[in-house]
Amino acid sequence: MGRVVVDVMPKPEILDPQGKAVAGALPRLGFDGFVSVRQGKRFELEVDGDVTPEILAQAREAAVTLLSNPVIEDVVAVTDASGEGQ
Amino acid sequence: MGRVVVDVMPKPEILDPQGKAVAGALPRLGFDGFVSVRQGKRFELEVDGDVTPEILAQAREAAVTLLSNPVIEDVVAVTDASGEGQ
Questions:
Q1: What 3-state class would DSSP assign to A2?
Q2: Which residues on B lie below 8 Å from A67 (Cβ)?
Q3: Where are the transmembrane segments (chains A, B) (predicted)?
Q4: DSSP letters spanning B20-80
Q5: CATH code for the part of the protein at B2-80
Q6: Distance of alpha carbon B10 from alpha carbon B76, whole angstroms
Q7: How many of the other CB atoms lie within 10 Å of CB of B6?
C-alpha cells in the first residue's frame, strides 16, 4: 500500500483564527518558546500498489483542485510517504 | 526564525467523515488512483531563534496536550522544519 501526503496551509496574508487561538493558549499552558502558530490540513491518500509518477501527478492535481482552496490556501507539499510506518 | 511542524491524524479506528467525503469526491473528479483518504491537521509553530532540543521537547509536550485530542487523534510527527523554505 502506497501513501501520498498532501500538506495544505492558509496563505501568509490570510488571517488564521485557529492558529491564533493555539498561539494564545500555548503560553497560558507554560509553552513559552513559540512566537506564532499557523494551522493547516494534512491529507493521507492511500494507493493500492506503488506510488508511481502518474499517481503523484494525480495527487498534485487533486491537491490544487479539491484538497485546497487556492484563494486562501497554499499546497505546501505533495510527498510520497509510502516508506513511513503506521 | 526556526519552525517546528506538528502533524496530527485521526486514529485508525476513528471514523473520519471529512476524509470519507474527499475519498468519495476524488473519483467523481476523475482521480481514480486512490483507495482511501484520511484528513488530519498540520501545525506550524514559529520559533524566535533556533529549534533547540528544549524547544522540540516543548513542542512534543504541546502536541499531546494542546494540539491533539489523545482520545481520537495520534501525533504522527513533530519535526524541525527550519530548513524548509516559505
A1: strand
A2: 22
A3: none
A4: HHHHHHHHHTT--S-SEEEEEEEEEEEESS---HHHHHHHHHHIIIIIS-TTTEEEEEEEE
A5: 3.30.1280.10
A6: 10
A7: 27
Supply the Cα-derived Rg of chain B in whole angstroms: 16
Instruction: Report d(CA A10, CA A25) in Å as an integer.
Output: 20
pLDDT tens per residue, range B14-65: 999 999 999 999 999 999 999 999 999 999 999 999 999 999 999 999 999 9
| A62, A16 contact by CB (below 8 A) | no
pLDDT, tens digit (0-9, with 9 covering 90-100), for A6-27: 999 999 999 999 999 999 999 9
Query: Cell 513559552 identifies what position?
Result: A32
Contact B42 A42 (CB under 8 A): yes
Burial of B82 (0-12, 13-18, 19+ CB in 10 A): middle
Query: Which residue ranges make up each domain of chain A?
Result: 2-80
Instruction: Determine the Cα–Cα distance for residues A54 and B86; give it in Å rounded to an integer.
Output: 26
Q: How far is CA B72 from the centre of its chain?
A: 14
- Check: CB of residue A22 under 8 Å from CB of residue A67: no
Joined grid coordinates for residue A26 = 500555548
Q: How many CB atoms lie within 10 A of CB B76?
A: 19
Residues of B in contact with A34 (CB under 8 A): 4, 45-47, 55, 58-59, 62
